Amino acid sequence: MRPISVVAILVAWPVALLTSTAPAQERPTFRSSSELVVLHVSVRDRGGRYLTGLAKDAFTVIDDGKPQTLEMFSAEEVPATVGFLIDNSNSMRPNRERVIASSVSFAKNSHPKDEIFVLTFNETVRRAWGPSIVEEMNADAFARTMDEQIVARGMTAIYDGILTGLDWLTRANHTRQVLIVVSDGGDNASKGKVDDVLTRVHDSDATVYTVTLVDRLLRGEGNPRLMKRLARATGGESYSPRDVDDVPGAFEKIARDIRSAYTLAYIPTASGTAAAERRRHTVRVYVRGADGKALDVRTRDGYFEKTHESPQ
Length: 312
What we know:
6-stranded mixed beta sheet, Rossmann fold, 5-stranded mixed beta sheet, alpha/beta, globular, 18 strands, Immunoglobulin-like, 2 domains
Protein backbone atom coordinates (compact mmCIF):
# COMPACT_ATOMS: atom_id res chain seq x y z
CA MET A 1 0.00 0.00 0.00
CA ARG A 2 1.22 3.48 -0.77
CA PRO A 3 2.08 5.72 2.20
CA ILE A 4 -0.49 8.41 2.87
CA SER A 5 -0.31 11.65 4.80
CA VAL A 6 -2.63 12.75 7.55
CA VAL A 7 -3.44 16.30 8.54
CA ALA A 8 -4.64 16.48 12.14
CA ILE A 9 -5.76 19.74 13.65
CA LEU A 10 -6.03 19.89 17.43
CA VAL A 11 -8.21 22.09 19.58
CA ALA A 12 -8.37 21.87 23.35
CA TRP A 13 -12.08 22.06 24.20
CA PRO A 14 -13.59 22.18 27.71
CA VAL A 15 -15.98 19.29 27.13
CA ALA A 16 -16.63 15.73 28.17
CA LEU A 17 -19.46 13.96 26.34
CA LEU A 18 -20.84 14.15 22.82
CA THR A 19 -24.61 13.99 22.84
CA SER A 20 -25.96 11.14 20.74
CA THR A 21 -28.95 13.12 19.54
CA ALA A 22 -26.98 15.54 17.33
CA PRO A 23 -27.76 15.18 13.58
CA ALA A 24 -24.87 13.70 11.60
CA GLN A 25 -24.05 16.93 9.74
CA GLU A 26 -24.67 19.39 12.58
CA ARG A 27 -22.19 20.84 15.00
CA PRO A 28 -21.56 18.38 17.86
CA THR A 29 -23.01 19.42 21.22
CA PHE A 30 -20.91 18.93 24.34
CA ARG A 31 -21.48 18.97 28.08
CA SER A 32 -18.64 20.58 29.99
CA SER A 33 -16.87 18.70 32.79
CA SER A 34 -13.27 18.22 31.66
CA GLU A 35 -10.97 19.06 28.81
CA LEU A 36 -11.58 17.11 25.63
CA VAL A 37 -9.03 17.39 22.83
CA VAL A 38 -10.69 17.32 19.41
CA LEU A 39 -8.78 16.39 16.26
CA HIS A 40 -9.97 16.88 12.70
CA VAL A 41 -8.04 14.48 10.49
CA SER A 42 -7.92 14.31 6.71
CA VAL A 43 -6.26 11.43 4.88
CA ARG A 44 -4.74 11.52 1.40
CA ASP A 45 -2.67 9.23 -0.77
CA ARG A 46 0.47 10.31 -2.62
CA GLY A 47 -1.64 11.34 -5.58
CA GLY A 48 -3.47 13.86 -3.42
CA ARG A 49 -6.71 11.86 -3.34
CA TYR A 50 -8.61 11.86 -0.09
CA LEU A 51 -9.35 8.46 1.41
CA THR A 52 -12.43 7.40 3.34
CA GLY A 53 -13.31 4.27 5.26
CA LEU A 54 -10.49 4.12 7.79
CA ALA A 55 -11.61 2.51 11.04
CA LYS A 56 -11.18 3.92 14.52
CA ASP A 57 -8.51 1.37 15.41
CA ALA A 58 -6.27 2.67 12.59
CA PHE A 59 -5.57 5.80 14.68
CA THR A 60 -3.28 6.00 17.70
CA VAL A 61 -2.88 9.23 19.67
CA ILE A 62 0.01 9.84 22.08
CA ASP A 63 -0.28 12.80 24.44
CA ASP A 64 2.91 13.64 26.39
CA GLY A 65 4.15 10.10 25.78
CA LYS A 66 0.96 8.43 26.99
CA PRO A 67 -1.44 6.51 24.70
CA GLN A 68 -4.94 7.96 24.75
CA THR A 69 -8.37 6.36 24.52
CA LEU A 70 -10.57 7.87 21.85
CA GLU A 71 -13.87 8.98 23.37
CA MET A 72 -15.33 9.86 19.98
CA PHE A 73 -14.63 8.89 16.38
CA SER A 74 -16.60 10.03 13.35
CA ALA A 75 -16.06 9.71 9.63
CA GLU A 76 -18.90 12.13 8.94
CA GLU A 77 -18.07 15.41 7.25
CA VAL A 78 -18.07 18.15 9.89
CA PRO A 79 -19.06 21.73 8.98
CA ALA A 80 -16.62 24.50 9.84
CA THR A 81 -16.50 28.21 10.46
CA VAL A 82 -14.16 29.58 7.78
CA GLY A 83 -12.74 33.07 7.89
CA PHE A 84 -11.11 34.56 4.81
CA LEU A 85 -8.47 37.18 5.56
CA ILE A 86 -7.63 38.86 2.26
CA ASP A 87 -4.80 41.32 1.71
CA ASN A 88 -6.38 44.46 0.25
CA SER A 89 -3.19 46.49 -0.12
CA ASN A 90 -1.56 47.76 -3.29
CA SER A 91 0.75 44.73 -3.54
CA MET A 92 -2.25 42.48 -4.29
CA ARG A 93 -3.37 44.41 -7.38
CA PRO A 94 -1.98 41.87 -9.93
CA ASN A 95 -3.90 39.04 -8.20
CA ARG A 96 -7.13 40.86 -7.41
CA GLU A 97 -9.48 39.35 -9.99
CA ARG A 98 -8.21 35.80 -9.54
CA VAL A 99 -8.54 36.00 -5.73
CA ILE A 100 -12.12 37.23 -6.07
CA ALA A 101 -13.06 34.43 -8.46
CA SER A 102 -11.33 31.81 -6.29
CA SER A 103 -13.12 33.00 -3.15
CA VAL A 104 -16.49 32.65 -4.86
CA SER A 105 -15.57 29.18 -6.14
CA PHE A 106 -14.41 28.17 -2.66
CA ALA A 107 -17.79 29.08 -1.18
CA LYS A 108 -19.58 27.03 -3.84
CA ASN A 109 -17.43 23.98 -2.98
CA SER A 110 -17.89 24.30 0.79
CA HIS A 111 -20.12 22.24 3.07
CA PRO A 112 -23.70 23.65 2.93
CA LYS A 113 -23.61 24.19 6.70
CA ASP A 114 -20.24 25.95 6.71
CA GLU A 115 -20.21 29.44 8.17
CA ILE A 116 -18.15 31.92 6.14
CA PHE A 117 -16.97 35.45 6.81
CA VAL A 118 -14.50 37.66 4.95
CA LEU A 119 -12.19 40.31 6.36
CA THR A 120 -9.97 42.51 4.23
CA PHE A 121 -6.97 44.49 5.34
CA ASN A 122 -4.71 47.21 4.08
CA GLU A 123 -3.76 49.70 6.78
CA THR A 124 -7.25 49.04 8.22
CA VAL A 125 -9.06 45.75 8.87
CA ARG A 126 -12.65 45.70 7.58
CA ARG A 127 -15.49 43.22 7.45
CA ALA A 128 -16.38 42.49 3.83
CA TRP A 129 -18.92 39.68 4.23
CA GLY A 130 -20.81 37.61 6.77
CA PRO A 131 -20.79 35.59 8.82
CA SER A 132 -23.21 33.64 6.61
CA ILE A 133 -24.18 29.99 6.23
CA VAL A 134 -23.18 28.70 2.78
CA GLU A 135 -26.57 27.23 1.85
CA GLU A 136 -28.17 30.60 2.60
CA MET A 137 -25.67 32.66 0.59
CA ASN A 138 -26.47 34.25 -2.74
CA ALA A 139 -23.44 33.50 -4.95
CA ASP A 140 -24.03 36.51 -7.21
CA ALA A 141 -24.33 38.86 -4.24
CA PHE A 142 -21.18 37.39 -2.72
CA ALA A 143 -19.27 37.90 -5.99
CA ARG A 144 -20.47 41.52 -6.28
CA THR A 145 -19.51 42.24 -2.70
CA MET A 146 -16.02 40.80 -3.15
CA ASP A 147 -15.56 42.91 -6.28
CA GLU A 148 -16.63 46.04 -4.39
CA GLN A 149 -14.65 45.37 -1.22
CA ILE A 150 -11.32 44.17 -2.65
CA VAL A 151 -9.81 47.35 -4.06
CA ALA A 152 -6.06 46.59 -3.70
CA ARG A 153 -4.69 49.89 -2.47
CA GLY A 154 -2.90 51.27 0.55
CA MET A 155 -0.40 49.80 3.00
CA THR A 156 -0.41 46.39 4.74
CA ALA A 157 -1.40 45.51 8.31
CA ILE A 158 -1.37 41.71 8.19
CA TYR A 159 -0.55 41.31 11.89
CA ASP A 160 -3.63 43.32 12.85
CA GLY A 161 -5.63 41.35 10.30
CA ILE A 162 -4.66 37.97 11.74
CA LEU A 163 -5.36 39.08 15.29
CA THR A 164 -8.79 40.36 14.24
CA GLY A 165 -9.54 37.17 12.31
CA LEU A 166 -8.72 35.02 15.33
CA ASP A 167 -10.95 37.23 17.48
CA TRP A 168 -13.84 36.62 15.07
CA LEU A 169 -13.30 32.88 15.24
CA THR A 170 -13.77 32.90 19.02
CA ARG A 171 -17.44 33.63 18.23
CA ALA A 172 -17.71 30.79 15.69
CA ASN A 173 -20.83 28.62 15.50
CA HIS A 174 -18.82 25.47 14.72
CA THR A 175 -16.14 23.72 16.76
CA ARG A 176 -13.93 23.40 13.69
CA GLN A 177 -12.45 26.81 12.96
CA VAL A 178 -10.36 27.80 9.95
CA LEU A 179 -8.58 31.00 8.95
CA ILE A 180 -7.43 31.33 5.33
CA VAL A 181 -4.84 34.09 4.93
CA VAL A 182 -4.26 35.45 1.42
CA SER A 183 -1.28 37.81 1.27
CA ASP A 184 2.41 38.19 0.49
CA GLY A 185 3.06 38.15 4.25
CA GLY A 186 4.67 41.57 4.44
CA ASP A 187 3.62 44.17 7.01
CA ASN A 188 4.23 47.91 7.14
CA ALA A 189 1.20 49.30 8.98
CA SER A 190 0.19 47.11 11.96
CA LYS A 191 -0.15 48.21 15.56
CA GLY A 192 0.31 44.60 16.64
CA LYS A 193 3.68 42.83 16.49
CA VAL A 194 4.68 39.53 14.92
CA ASP A 195 5.28 38.05 18.39
CA ASP A 196 1.69 38.92 19.32
CA VAL A 197 0.49 37.05 16.23
CA LEU A 198 2.57 33.93 16.88
CA THR A 199 1.44 33.79 20.52
CA ARG A 200 -2.23 34.07 19.54
CA VAL A 201 -1.90 31.50 16.76
CA HIS A 202 -0.37 28.95 19.12
CA ASP A 203 -3.09 29.73 21.65
CA SER A 204 -5.98 29.55 19.21
CA ASP A 205 -8.30 26.69 18.29
CA ALA A 206 -8.07 27.72 14.62
CA THR A 207 -6.32 25.97 11.76
CA VAL A 208 -4.54 28.46 9.52
CA TYR A 209 -4.11 27.92 5.79
CA THR A 210 -2.04 30.44 3.84
CA VAL A 211 -1.92 31.39 0.17
CA THR A 212 1.23 33.41 -0.45
CA LEU A 213 1.08 35.74 -3.43
CA VAL A 214 4.39 37.48 -4.04
CA ASP A 215 4.92 39.95 -6.87
CA ARG A 216 8.12 38.83 -8.56
CA LEU A 217 9.09 42.44 -9.17
CA LEU A 218 8.58 43.31 -5.50
CA ARG A 219 9.79 40.07 -3.93
CA GLY A 220 11.55 41.83 -1.09
CA GLU A 221 8.26 43.34 0.07
CA GLY A 222 6.70 40.05 1.21
CA ASN A 223 7.35 37.55 3.97
CA PRO A 224 6.66 34.00 2.73
CA ARG A 225 8.48 32.53 5.71
CA LEU A 226 5.87 33.98 8.08
CA MET A 227 3.06 32.52 5.97
CA LYS A 228 4.59 29.05 6.14
CA ARG A 229 5.19 29.39 9.86
CA LEU A 230 1.56 30.29 10.54
CA ALA A 231 0.30 27.21 8.72
CA ARG A 232 2.86 24.87 10.24
CA ALA A 233 2.09 26.07 13.76
CA THR A 234 -1.58 25.08 13.49
CA GLY A 235 -1.49 21.93 11.36
CA GLY A 236 -2.68 23.78 8.26
CA GLU A 237 -1.00 24.02 4.89
CA SER A 238 0.81 26.78 3.03
CA TYR A 239 0.50 27.31 -0.72
CA SER A 240 2.68 29.55 -2.89
CA PRO A 241 1.19 29.72 -6.41
CA ARG A 242 3.94 30.53 -8.91
CA ASP A 243 1.50 32.07 -11.34
CA VAL A 244 -1.81 33.89 -10.94
CA ASP A 245 -3.51 31.08 -12.85
CA ASP A 246 -2.46 28.66 -10.08
CA VAL A 247 -4.41 30.55 -7.39
CA PRO A 248 -7.72 28.69 -7.93
CA GLY A 249 -5.95 25.35 -7.48
CA ALA A 250 -4.69 26.40 -4.04
CA PHE A 251 -8.21 27.36 -2.95
CA GLU A 252 -9.62 24.07 -4.26
CA LYS A 253 -7.06 22.06 -2.27
CA ILE A 254 -7.92 23.95 0.91
CA ALA A 255 -11.65 23.39 0.36
CA ARG A 256 -11.14 19.65 -0.13
CA ASP A 257 -8.90 19.42 2.91
CA ILE A 258 -11.48 21.10 5.13
CA ARG A 259 -14.30 18.89 3.88
CA SER A 260 -12.40 15.58 3.90
CA ALA A 261 -11.89 14.91 7.57
CA TYR A 262 -12.38 12.40 10.32
CA THR A 263 -13.14 13.75 13.79
CA LEU A 264 -11.45 12.22 16.83
CA ALA A 265 -11.56 13.25 20.47
CA TYR A 266 -10.02 12.14 23.75
CA ILE A 267 -9.81 13.21 27.37
CA PRO A 268 -6.09 13.61 28.19
CA THR A 269 -4.70 11.23 30.79
CA ALA A 270 -4.14 13.10 34.07
CA SER A 271 -0.55 14.24 34.40
CA GLY A 272 -0.51 15.43 37.97
CA THR A 273 0.27 19.01 36.94
CA ALA A 274 -1.13 21.65 39.27
CA ALA A 275 -4.44 23.00 37.99
CA ALA A 276 -3.16 26.57 38.11
CA GLU A 277 -0.16 25.75 35.91
CA ARG A 278 -0.93 26.21 32.24
CA ARG A 279 1.39 24.11 30.10
CA ARG A 280 1.82 22.78 26.61
CA HIS A 281 1.16 19.15 25.70
CA THR A 282 3.12 17.36 22.99
CA VAL A 283 0.94 15.22 20.73
CA ARG A 284 1.78 12.56 18.14
CA VAL A 285 -0.67 10.79 15.86
CA TYR A 286 0.12 7.44 14.25
CA VAL A 287 -1.95 5.67 11.61
CA ARG A 288 -1.62 2.15 10.23
CA GLY A 289 -3.08 0.84 7.01
CA ALA A 290 -4.92 -2.43 6.49
CA ASP A 291 -1.56 -4.17 5.98
CA GLY A 292 -0.36 -3.00 9.40
CA LYS A 293 2.33 -0.69 8.02
CA ALA A 294 2.76 2.76 9.53
CA LEU A 295 1.51 5.58 7.36
CA ASP A 296 2.93 9.09 7.04
CA VAL A 297 1.40 11.59 9.48
CA ARG A 298 1.48 15.38 9.51
CA THR A 299 -0.05 17.14 12.49
CA ARG A 300 0.26 19.99 14.91
CA ASP A 301 2.73 18.88 17.52
CA GLY A 302 0.83 20.02 20.61
CA TYR A 303 -1.64 22.29 22.34
CA PHE A 304 -1.89 24.47 25.42
CA GLU A 305 -4.12 23.53 28.32
CA LYS A 306 -7.09 25.78 28.68
CA THR A 307 -7.24 27.90 31.81
CA HIS A 308 -10.19 27.43 34.15
CA GLU A 309 -11.21 29.79 36.92
CA SER A 310 -11.29 28.26 40.38
CA PRO A 311 -14.77 27.95 41.90
CA GLN A 312 -15.67 30.60 44.42
